[in-house]
């Protein structure tokens, strides 16, 4: 029980000393309490800003999750359209190459006949 008395007395003396120190002014006349108030205010503002940022990040994450399937489908559709265009373009290129080859042959035959 004596140990508890010493602990209680030490606790009260420590609290009293802390309170006295908190109210003592520094060289410019500001009390430590003023610094603590300012620090507490800064911490509170930083915490509020962090909460706002976390809320915005959560909202952006939710919107991304909602839009991702649409974006994936659009990409698949675009890939299909590009592949289809490539096939059609290759077919058209092949037809044009055949025409060029025939025209070239016809031109060569006409030139050979005119030379003879």
Features of the shown structure:
single chain, 116 residues, mainly alpha, 91% helix
Task: Give an overview of the whole structure.
With 116 residues, the protein is mainly α. The protein has one domain. Helix content is 91%, strand content 0%. The protein is built from 2 helices and no strands. It is rod-shaped. It starts with a helix and ends with a helix.
Please sum up the structure shown.
With 116 residues, the chain is mainly alpha-helical. The protein is built from two helices and no strands. This is YtxH domain-containing protein.
Tell me about the biggest sheet? Answer: none
Count of individual domains: 1
Q: Summarize the amount of helix as a percent range.
A: over 70%
Number of strands: 0
What structural class should be given to the helix and strand makeup?
mainly alpha
How are helices and strands ordered from N to C?
Answer: HH
Distance between the termini: 134 Å
Low-confidence residue ranges: none
Beta-strand proportion: under 5%
Overall mean pLDDT score?
86
| Tally of DSSP helical segments | 2
Keywords: Coiled coil
Organism: Lactobacillus porci
Coiled coil: 86-113
Protein name: YtxH domain-containing protein
